[in-house]
Structures are given as structure tokens and as C-alpha cells.
Design a protein that fits this description.
single chain; about 425 residues; alpha/beta; 19 helices; 8 strands; globular
């Protein structure tokens, strides 16, 4: 990797602490990904992205800003990338997946709070994440009580704008979301000095949907048996989608999909045919949180699909372009794509998510469903009971796991996952 210390120093990074993070990531990545056998050659690009995670992409973001563009950070898939791109901005997902940042977050937030929220706060206040240091604006959203209250504190530490989210899917809920989207447009226009038009929004919609279609194509290949790529690698690709250059990401994901299609045609897989297959749902799985996938796939199980914000929810729904392509109609269609199409646990009731999980389990041939939640993620943990009952009625085996970013519970998790795998083999 090139020497980026001058760049990091210019961003105000705490270099000494950041060095510790940079030393730990290659070891974790190597153990999780590089030890896999018979990986697709096209995964080399995604390896490079992680190797350069705080280097090349940050350099590109800063160059974009020097050319007059803006960089916007977010934590949630309800923040429309289409609008950011239309206004000559770049949207990046912010770091919130490592235990490394949790202690710093706990200096301002309670310990009995979801690790994702604490890590996001810690990444900012510890000055060890170049993405936080590069953004012109962070867009938060009120999808849970932990985030809602944390934003009050983060607003004192970083430039922040908060989108309010309805908690019920109804005409009134849609009206609120539509209003919040318009308010976001006004804030981004103020930030960028540019005006949203039907023409640039249409281009933004088409660009983001091309990225979604590339992921759709890759994920569809995970329906094959044997699998052409591991769940770990598929997860890595979808995680990288949140901050990589969109055009380059599309090209590289298409290349990977082409290679995987050739593997499927040859009957070549990364696991033996007939390996028990898992659908994973629950809390978003953010870089570098690869714990569960590594445990499952070293326990003779295959993760074939993720029904969460870093999985199918991110790309399944496309924007249904209106016949009349004026700005108001395009914003309506965009709002419907996000509000109607994404079934986050922040909504009550939320039967749409249960329907999605059952549908995806059938489509991907999953033998069982694993509900993976971070400790204190009450939004998903409470909804789990409804999912448990639904899957029991559908005859789909179910495993509930609670974990954290902290190491030390891998042995216990592995024991439970292996036992679940054995039950799936008997259930067949």
C-alpha cells in the first residue's frame, strides 16, 4: 500500500491510534478471506479495495472535493444515493463495524447500547476513520431510539443532518417520508450550491439502479448448488458497494458475476454440493464485521443470502420510473422505492419483512434461517418473536443468535451453529 500518512495527517487523523487499526485489519482479513480455497479470481479486486480501504478511496474522495464536488456520509439505506449523485456528490457508508471504535463511543454513550451505534460515534470522536474526516455532511436517520438520541450528541462533533422516519407504513407515513426527502434535497442543494433537476435526478436513478442490477445478477448465482462463491465473499462485495466508486464497482461486480456464471455452468463450487444452506437476517453486517459468516462457513455450512440492509434490502427494489418524468413525479417514484420497498424493523407492523424472508428462503433453497442480532439491538430482537412464529408455521428451521463486536464468543457461537447444521442435515 502507498504511504498515505501525509494525507491522513491533513485530515486530522490520530496517526498513532490509527496505526493500531491498520495493523489489525490485514490479519483479520487474511484469516477470514484469503485462507479460503478456490475463490473466484475476480475477488482480487475486492481484496485490493479492503487493502486500500483507508487509502486509495479516501484519495479519490478528496480529489472529488478539490474539483468542487461534495462527499456525504450515511449509516442507512434510507438515505437516497440517487439525490446525492444528482447533485455531484458522492455517498459513502460510514465505518461502524469494529470493536476498535466501541470504547471511544462509550465515553459519550451508555454501554448497554448497540455496538453499531457506539462504533459509529467512536470512529468519529477518536479521529481514526478517514471517511468521517472526509465528509462534508453526515446524514443520520431516526430508525431506532439509540440512533435518534445519539445524533443529538454527534451533532456537537460533526456536521450532521437528520432525516425523520415514520414508524408505520401508511399514507400519512409516506407523506412524512416524502416531506423529509424534499427537506434533504433542500439541505443538499444548500451544501452543494447546485439545483436538483429532473434531468440530473433521472441520471442519478439510472446510475444507482445499474449498481443494484449488478448485485442482483451476482446474488442470483448464489441460488446454484454448488455455490460459485462463498457467503463471505458475497457479503464483502455488498459491503464494498456502500463506498466504492459506483462505475468501477459495477464493472468489477459484473466481471465477478460473469466468472461465477462460468463456474455454475461447469458445476464448480466453493462447497460440496448438498452443503446445508443458510439465510441470514437481522442487524446490518458492516465492515469489518465478518464474524458470523466465517464461523458458519468453517462449520460446513453455506450462507446463501442475507435479508438485511447490507444484503437484499439494499438492491432488490428498483426505482419504477414514472411515465411523466418531471421532478415531482421522479421524487414520488423514488420515495415509493424506499418507503414501500424496504422493510426495516423500524416499522410496526412489519409483515413485509417476514414475507421477504420466507420468499428468499424458498428462492435461494435455504435449509434454515439464522436471526443474527447485536446485543441491545432491541428493534430487531423484539421483532424476532414474530419471525419465529412465522417460520414455524412455514416449516422453516430457525436459529436465534446474539453477539457483539467483541472477540471471545466465537467458540460458543460455533457450537450452536454446528448443532444447528446437524439438525438441518437430519431435517432434510
Amino acid at each position: 500500500m502507498a504511504d498515505y500518512r501525509d494525507m491522513w495527517n491533513g485530515l486530522g487523523i490520530d496517526l498513532e491510534t490509527h496505526d493500531k487499526l491498520c495493523d489489525a485489519l490485514p490479519v483479520l482479513f487474511g484469516e477470514t478471506f484469503l485462507d479460503q480455497k478456490d475463490r473466484p479470481a475476480a475477488m482480487d479486486y475486492f481484496n485490493m479495495v479492503i487493502a486500500e480501504v483507508h487509502g486509495l478511496r479516501i484519495k479519490e474522495l478528496l480529489a472529488h472535493k478539490e474539483r468542487g464536488g461534495t462527499v456525504v456520509g450515511s449509516f442507512c439505506i434510507y438515505v437516497p444515493e440517487e439525490i446525492v449523485l444528482a447533485l455531484d456528490g458522492l455517498l459513502v457508508g460510514l465505518c461502524a463495524g469494529s470493536q476498535f471504535w466501541v470504547p471511544a463511543g462509550e465515553t459519550l454513550l451508555p454501554r448497554n447500547l448497540c455496538a453499531l451505534v457506539k462504533a459509529g460515534m467512536g470512529a468519529r470522536i477518536s479521529r481514526t476513520c478517514p471517511y468521517f474526516q472526509s465528509v462534508d455532511l453526515i446524514v443520520g436517520e431516526n430508525t431506532c431510539d439509540g440512533k435518534k438520541k445519539a445524533w443529538d450528541i454527534l451533532a456537537d462533533e460533526a456536521p450532521l443532518y437528520v432525516m425523520d422516519m415514520p414508524n408505520k407504513k401508511s399514507p400519512a407515513g409516506f407523506a412524512l417520508f416524502r416531506q423529509e426527502m424534499e427537506a434533504l434535497v433542500r439541505r443538499l442543494e444548500e451544501l452543494t450550491g447546485k439545483t436538483l433537476t429532473a434531468e440530473n435526478l433521472l441520471k442519478g436513478c439510472e446510475r444507482v439502479d445499474r449498481k443494484r442490477r449488478a448485485l442482483d445478477r451476482l446474488y442470483a448465482l448464489r441460488k446454484a448448488d454448488p455455490l460459485p462463491l462463498s457467503g463471505r465473499d458475497a457479503l464483502l462485495v455488498s459491503q464494498i458497494a456502500f463506498y466504492d466508486d459506483p462505475e468501477r464497482f459495477i464493472a468489477q461486480t459484473e466481471a465477478l458475476a460473469t466468472e461465477c456464471e462460468e463456474r455454475v455452468a461447469r458445476g464448480q463450487g466453493v462447497f460440496p454440493k448438498g452443503t446445508p444452506r443458510l439465510l441470514v437476517t437481522g442487524t446490518p453486517i458492516v465492515v469489518p464485521n465478518w464474524k458470523f459468516h466465517a464461523i458458519a462457513e468453517t462449520s460446513n455450512l453455506a450462507v446463501v443470502v442475507e435479508e438485511n440492509c447490507t444484503g437484499t434490502r439494499y438492491f432488490e427494489q428498483k426505482v419504477s420510473l414514472p411515465e411523466k418524468k418531471d421532478l415531482a413525479s421522479l421524487l414520488d417514484s423514488l420515495a415509493h422505492r424506499y418507503f414501500d420497498g424496504i422493510h426495516c424493523a423500524c416499522f410496526s407492523p412489519n409483515e413485509g419483512r417476514l414475507d421477504d424472508i420466507v420468499r428468499l428462503a424458498r428462492e435461494y433453497g435455504a435449509d434454515g434461517v439464522v436471526h443474527l442480532s447485536l446485543s441491545f439491538c432491541t428493534t430487531y430482537q423484539i421483532e424476532e418473536e414474530k419471525l419465529r412464529r412465522r417460520l414455524a408455521a412455514e416449516g422453516i428451521p430457525f436459529l436465534s443468535l446474539e453477539t457483539d463486536y467483541t472477540p471471545g464468543d466465537e467458540g460458543q457461537l460455533k457450537t450452536r451453529v454446528e448443532a444447528f447444521g446437524e439438525s438441518l442435515r437430519r431435517h432434510r
